Amino acid sequence: MGIEHIIYPRPVEEYIYLKKVPTGEKCPECGSNNVSRYPVICSLGAKMVVKCQDCLCALRYETPAPSENWPPYQPVTDGWEASIAG
Ligand SMILES: [Zn+2]
Does the model's pTM come out above 0.90? Predict the structure, then answer.
């Protein structure tokens, strides 16, 4: 289990790009409807962000579903409760 998250075939596409999925939501900062959802790595870890593509306002960060395969690896400690370092 999980090996599909480790081994990748060589890409066959000429160009690799990130697919941003339009959500159709309205940006609360600038009023634009150009809002998309896509994977990011940020200070919160691997997340899915819903972000305005015009003013870059982040509407929210979501925990990716397992079917979204993000991040493309699974840490051994995935799902563990965080503890205070001491
Ligand atoms: Zn905006």
Answer: no
